[in-house]
Design brief:
2 copies of one chain form a homodimer. By secondary structure, chain A is an alpha+beta fold. The model of chain A has no long low-confidence stretch (mean pLDDT about 95). Chain A has helices at about 5-15, 25-30, 50-60, 115-125, 140-145, 155, 190-195, 230-240, 255-265, 285-300, 315-325, 325-330, 350-360, 390-410, 425-430, 435-445; strands spanning about 20, 45, 65-70, 85-90, 95-100, 105-110, 125-130, 165-170, 175-180, 205-210, 215, 220-225, 250-255, 275-285, 305-310, 335-340, 365-370, 375-385. Chain A has 3 domains: about 5-90, 2-Layer Sandwich (Uridine Diphospho-n-acetylenolpyruvylglucosamine Reductase, domain 2), CATH 3.30.43.10; about 95-215, Uridine Diphospho-n-acetylenolpyruvylglucosamine Reductase, domain 3 (2-Layer Sandwich), CATH 3.30.465; about 220-410, 3-Layer(aba) Sandwich (Vanillyl-alcohol Oxidase, Chain A, domain 3). In chain A, the strands form 4 sheets. In chain A, strands 15-12-14-13-17-18-16 form a 7-stranded antiparallel β-sheet, sandwiched between helices. The first copy, chain A, has a 5-stranded antiparallel β-sheet with strand order 5-6-10-8-9. Chain A has a 4-stranded mixed β-sheet with strand order 1-2-4-3. Chains A and B meet through strand 9, helix 7, strand 11, helix 8 and helix 10 of A and strand 9, helix 7, strand 11, helix 8 and helix 10 of B.
């Protein structure tokens, strides 16, 4: 619990109106999008300047108060669930785009800027910020960096870490650390910006983020390939990559997901298809035409029943909106939705999809599978009810089986959702005891009292 | 000094023939390509397997023996200069390409693989590994990763860190740490691979490196734009980027460099030009044609006297070879050659080039300037003789002035050569006291005895 003296200190720094103590407020920030129990913080703080933010960090450290920074709380692995009795620091008032530099192709932002708003501001200047996590409409860039968020375009354009050129952040003492640069090349000191990417708020608190921008591709074309067989669809993914075509997006949806999404969004998806691939190629218009033609012919060769090419931007956007609605649509069906993101090398997608079907049968569970097939990052989604203990045990066993399969195929536990609290205990399975110890040494050195988002990634 | 018992232990593990104690051998590994005094190690070790490598690390730590890993020793900031009395570990027998995976677009290599050999092996399979540091003909991939090596293609394709998907390395205790993945997306645990990139051998010893590969572009076109005025040339660089064209390479050479290179390599460079831009665009053939035409017209508008387009691959290669010879050519002119790599946002290239001319005059020094103008990474090269103390003082003052200017323009101390021993004392100027302390905390936690390449980046 936090002493009254410290609360007074918070109020002195922020003003009373930015220190939230009501139980309702604290409940609001006790959970995120992961299937985990809520944990009530003692206080919720809403700084409006860098200076306030740095002072809060210092006070929390001095008083050993656990501190969890929160953007939009869309985290799927419990990364934003606070420590009992600790403080939640909101970034939603630190939401300024400080600079978009069109000459040198970078932007500087505060952590609370909303991803989609930023992408739109960048696009308005003719530039492109590719990372597009599913939650981009509400997620914040600070959260994206803390989680190394992925998205639909990972295949061709990489993920958030590929766009972080530099960071300014507060260490646990509230001292400012500057790392990286506005330049494409920078080897000045340790690559601390990269260490902070994906560190889930456990090593420091972001103040400013320098993001790389690229020119907007001049052409794009989207299509939908419809299959009567899941395996054919998944083999098509591998075939496209093997032909040296790297689409901007290459998404997969199984029949269960197609029907659920169609029911939810009515965009005219073929509900009788066993699987769909949603493919977009972009780049120079000539390249786009060629790639689109090649992709179409590969799909046909691999046995697609039908291929629909989006005739205009509106038609294209409708399909992508439907795809983005997949999680929301699935979430409506059952009280508990477990969205996994074990990831495999892309050529192993057919094996992984076969394994998911087998796991669904073996544990007698409803698993809808969709996701970023082009980069091997599927989202098997288990629909269940956590209150049903017997079924929940089967869910846990199925998750273990999914992880084992992904690792067996040379993959990884998490492609883009993070380890958080949900997967912490599996970490050693993929890495080594030495890796955990090495990570804990870093954590202990940078946060000796363990106040920065305790319990995430490497456990307590 | 290392005790006889430890030497015996090294010989037991490696065999006598891989433990070098002769003064001649030790001299060979006492220096690198930086302008710094050589430092004699006590022993040079040449492991031939991962197991041997791990055991050497452990023994060095147990016996507090400073350990410097060395690839080809092409380092320009003293990163491979050992600690007096310490051990040098050679990676040249750990030189196997373990896998090139054409389906999933990655490769796994040992640290001693030579960069250019690897790039050629990848190209033979129709794929592309873009990072191309100037020393690629001899440099090793382990060295490239340890230094986050750049090269001519940084502008469009990024630098080494953009291609490191995963690493297995030995921590200071000789325990294996696994980080990253064979998948495009991976957020399993801290981004340790990225922390190791550019850490200059101070945090661990690489065992295996997973590198990202991309499809080879299908078209390319190179041209040379000739200017009678340095500023016009430098403004053209900014104009090209501002037109949203990102060439694969965009190199600058001033008159002094042109004349020196031509004298050295006789490829027909225009020795009366004030400056040259060497530009290559690549991608889809239609894109290449368009971009090349646009670049040509921008160059003309900006006042280029002449533009020569390479008519075939042989002509193109000849120009790039000449460009790559710049350092060697300049190095022949004077006993001491100081190659700097302060880097600025690309729009600041004209200001930087003007500043370099002014600094050259102010300190009465010969400075040849060439380099990767497209990514703001120039290489002002000071020709001098370190034995001339009076001139050397002016050189040091000029280097300070170059750093101050680059930082004043929003740039960085080092784009690609590393901090090593040469720039360690300047680090705080660019970052902050907090940054140095934060970095030292990491170093102390991961290498408590300070045996891993002591004195590099953050000083002793």
């Amino acid at each position: 619990m936090i002493s009254q003296a410290v609360i007074k200190e918070f109020e002195r720094i922020l003003g009373k109106e930015k220190v939230f103590l009501d139980e309702t407020d604290r409940h609001t920030y006790s959970y995120d999008a992961a299937v985990l129990e809520p944990v009530l913080p003692s206080v919720v703080l809403r700084p409006t300047s860098s200076e306030e933010l740095g002072r809060l960090v210092r006070i929390c450290n001095e008083n050993s108060i656990p501190l969890t920074v929160r953007g939009a709380g869309t985290n799927l692995s419990g990364g934003t669930i606070p420590k009992k009795g600790g403080a939640v620091v909101l970034t939603n008032a630190l939401n300024k785009i400080l600079e978009i530099n069109t000459e040198d192709l970078y932007a500087i932002v505060q952590p609370g800027v909303v991803t989609a708003k930023f992408a739109a501001a960048v696009e308005a200047k003719g530039l492109f910020y590719p990372p597009d996590p599913g939650s981009q409409a509400v997620s914040t860039l600070g959260g994206n960096v803390a989680e190394n968020a992925g998205g639909l375009r990972g295949l061709k354009y990489g993920v958030t870490r590929d766009y972080v050129m530099g960071l300014e952040f507060f260490d646990v003492n509230g001292e400012i650390v500057k790392t990286g640069s506005r330049t494409v090349k920078c080897v000045t000191g340790y690559n601390l910006a990269a260490l902070m990417v994906g560190s889930e708020g456990t090593l420091g608190v972001f103040d400013k983020i320098i993001l790389k921008l690229i020119p907007m591709p001049t052409g794009r074309k989207a299509m939908m390939a419809i299959f009567d067989n899941v395996i054919k669809a998944s083999e098509t993914v591998a075939a496209i990559i093997a032909h040296r075509i790297v689409p901007a997006t290459l998404e997969f949806m199984d029949n269960f997901t197609i029907r659920t999404v169609e029911d939810y969004s009515r965009v005219g998806l073929p509900t009788d298809a066993a699987a769909l691939l949603l493919i977009e190629v972009d780049g120079h218009p000539a390249q786009v035409e060629e790639d689109a033609a090649k992709v179409e012919s590969i799909c046909r060769e691999m046995g697609a029943m039908k291929i629909r090419v989006a005739q205009d931007a509106a038609e294209r956007d409708k399909v992508w909106e439907a795809r983005r609605a997949a999680l929301s649509a699935l979430a409506k069906l059952k009280p508990t939705v477990v969205l996994e993101d074990a990831t495999v090398p892309r050529s192993k997608i057919p094996a992984m999809i076969q394994a998911l079907e087998e796991i669904s049968r073996r544990f007698n569970l409803t698993i809808g599978t969709f996701g970023h097939a082009g980069d091997g990052n599927l989202h098997p989604t288990i629909l269940t009810d956590k209150r049903n203990k017997e079924e929940w045990h089967r869910v846990e066993a199925a998750i273990d089986a999914i992880f084992d399969k992904a690792l067996g195929l040379g993959g990884t536990l998490s492609g883009e959702h993070g380890i958080g609290m949900a997967k912490s205990r599996y970490l050693e399975k993929e890495t080594s005891k030495g890796t955990i110890l090495f990570s804990r040494r870093i954590k202990a050195a940078l946060d000796p009292k363990g106040i920065l988002n305790p319990g995430k990634i490497i456990g307590e």
